[in-house]
Predict the 3D structure of the following.
Amino acid sequence: ISISFKIANMGGYFLGSFAVLLLCAFLSLFSALTYYLIKRFSIKDNTFFNSILIIISFSIFDWIKGNILWGFPWTPMSVIWSSNSATLAPFSYIGVWGYSLVTYSLVVGIYLLHKNIKLSVYFVLPFILILSFSNFIPRKFISVVENFHIRLIQPNIKQIDKWDETKTLTNLNLLINLTRHEHKKNIDLVVWPETAVLFDIMHEDNNSLLLKKNFKNIENIIIGGIRKEKINKNRKIYNSLFLIDNISNTIDYHDKIKLVPFGEYIPFRNVFKNFKILLGGLDFSSGEKHNFLELNNNVKVLPLICYE
């Protein structure tokens, strides 16, 4: 967050650090409310009720924290299982928030091991059941695309260089060279990073032509870029995903819907409108809906950018 203030020249690390402190204070309220409600409504010597109260309270405030205002999932409990393929499986059945609830139940169950074995088993059992079910009875996909060649491009460009307009051509050439690098067979799809290019490739100018003419033997390419729109006198910019079909020379796109607070827009900008330091930037606008993008070989892609 602080880095985004520095790169956007909106107060630098000083204002960025202040924003981080405010954000931490805001998010801490949810933890504080959780503990307060548990303390307020717990019943003495009623272990079962208190256990349910703890699980429900943490789960509800986890969900509220992850969906309020900007809908950013601030480290829900279930992310502790994201580093292993076996523990990842339940996500496809009960989702992030359901998995968080089951995880809180597991934690309470472990805590009760030395207090009440019977209750401990009850609270640990949901985790064991969903973990077993999701791994031994995996979901079946509708279809699998075989012999589909994809190239992912990671240019490793620093953020401060990425947004430097004087380095636009240098960065673009690096991306193009990595895209064209040593491939004898046709590549079905090439994927560039988020906001890989700063210019609007929807316009048929020299920049967009520079892109297309370099992609021989590549059927489709996904490019992260900035889409610009002007309605009357209002300018809007979108963090977009562009799909270029090199066979039909068409361009489709998806505008990012869930924007990152502070990184892509300033929350409550109107409240701070008197602070000139916040008026120098232009917030990204949010897209309207997700659309399936179809490649020229009948493969459909659901576009997602960042934490969407």
Notes: The beta strands are 150-152, 187-191, 218-231, 234-245, 250-255, 293-294, 300-301. The first strand starts at residue 150 and ends at 152. The chain is about 40% helix and 15% strand. Residues 12-41 form the longest helix (30 residues).
